[in-house]
Amino acid sequence: MAKVTLGEVAIEHKETCKGNKEGYPVVGLEHLVPENICLEHWSESPDNTFSKMFRKGNVLFGRRRAYLKKAAVAPFDGICSGDITVIEAKSDRLLPELLPFIIQNDALFDFAVGKSAGSLSPRVKWEHLRNYEFELPDLEQQRELARLLWAMNTTKTAYMKLLAKTDELVKSQFIEWFGDPVENPKGFPIRRISDFTDVLTGATPSRTVEGYYEGDIPWVKTGEIERGLIKSTEESITYKALQETNCKILPIGTVMVAMYGQGKTRGTSGILQIEAATNQACAAILPCDKLNPVFLHQFLVNEYGRLRGMGRGVQQANLNLSMIKNYPIMDVPHFLQEQFAAFVRQSDKSKFELEQALAELTATYKRIISENLG
């Protein structure tokens, strides 16, 4: 192996679209998925201000906020944002099929973050990125390594598709069992969520008061609700904060709804697997005898689009506690809820096994990249 810099084996592809953009797919930063080496999203609209061209096989590297780890290989010719650096392999030194794995590499992203400039929206330039050093095997070894890594990536993609299909199966089975809540073809009585149980919110202890944080009580924020099953939190509060603020400990089985949040967060739901407190941006639907938490959670997952669409606000559309309390829900016999919850638990077991296999494969995949292209 020889130690090389990225600039010795690859170049920044600099090409501008000077004519009609019609027929060229358009790629923005929003189309690059973190840690996904394959480009799966783009726009077909020529109505944009982008002019940077890329060619099939080039790697599209998100140079803004490099810590998001956005880099993907282009499956076609197209146009992209100026916040994307287009990288092309020098084929006499580097196999083009291997370049995506050199770029989509934790070590390179760490290097890029360290070289980024700007406080609100840090960017890294090619003139810095080209100095990234790594070990590069000869061309024959590169071919073997590329074949192995692409095969592993194909398997990873298959696992992720199976996980998505498992979620879709649960969603479709909910409709099969209970029907669409708005059309209500099964004729279930319609109630409000607050007809069954209490719905409350939490608070954010002041960060200027000493002794409120880093305690023993998990504290849930909206971003953590997206996980579905909430088993841990990034932050925790103390019993002092609990006594001196409006925070309350919520029991296991509480169904949480994100009322605020950037991106897709608003309207997501999850089930507490631990006792925890929460902030004012989350609604907590307390456990009760008439609503199975798994049934309620899946109902809210299926209602995500409608629930999210209720958001109100000028600068940011948010939900409020009254919306959650008054949200209509079918009054389904409890034995049917329990049967559906058993089905979901079995699906979750299959999903857990898939997630474990994916985690092990991903760890091996990253280890091979680190050991051979480190």
Structure description:
There is one protein chain. The chain is of the alpha+beta class. The chain folds into three domains: about 1-135, DNA methylase specificity domains (Adenine-n6-DNA-methyltransferase TaqI, Chain A, domain 2); about 140-165 and about 330-374; about 190-330, Adenine-n6-DNA-methyltransferase TaqI, Chain A, domain 2. Helix content is about 35%, strand content about 20%. The protein has helices at about 5-10, 100-105, 105-115, 125-130, 140-180, 220-225, 240-245, 295-300, 305-310, 320-325, 335-374, and strands spanning about 1-5, 10, 25, 50-55, 60, 70-75, 80, 85-90, 135, 190, 200, 215-220, 230, 235, 255-260, 270, 275-280, 280-285, 330. Strands 11-18-15-16-13 form a five-stranded mixed sheet. The chain has a four-stranded antiparallel sheet with strand order 2-8-5-6. Strand 5 (about 60) and strand 6 (about 70-75) form a beta hairpin. It starts with a strand and ends with a helix.
